[in-house]
Amino acid sequence: MTGRRSPIERWDADRAGMLALPPVDPPAWWRMQTRIGRDHYVRVDTNDYSVHPDAIGRTVTVLTDNARSSRWRPAA
User: Fold this and answer.
1) Considering only CA atoms, which of 56, 64, 7 is closest in space to residue 32?
2) CA-based nearest residue to 44, from 23, 30, 55, 54
3) Which pLDDT score, from 0 to 100, does residue 73 have?
4) CA 48, CA 37: separation in Å to the nearest integer?
5) Angle at the Cα of 72 from the Cα atoms of 66 and 74, rounded to 5 degrees
6) 3-class DSSP state for residue 11?
7) Residue 12 in contact with residue 19, Cβ under 8 Å?
8) DSSP assignment, residue 46?
9) Cβ–Cβ < 8 Å for 42, 48
10) Cα separation, 60 vs 43, whole angstroms
């Protein structure tokens, strides 16, 4: 009968079933796949990053977060 329990009682029951948070924050990467065009640039948010011309026509995975510059690698 959850309808007759107070919100704080339901809150306590819900919290009891939760796992503890991990000691380290999970990575906050943004991941996207894109195909490199003839201009060999990758756009991330409002920034353009040049990529080696050998990557033209290939699909790459772009990883970025707020603290690091973008990295790319060939898509699997």
Assistant:
1) 64
2) 30
3) 65
4) 12
5) 155
6) helix
7) no
8) T
9) yes
10) 12
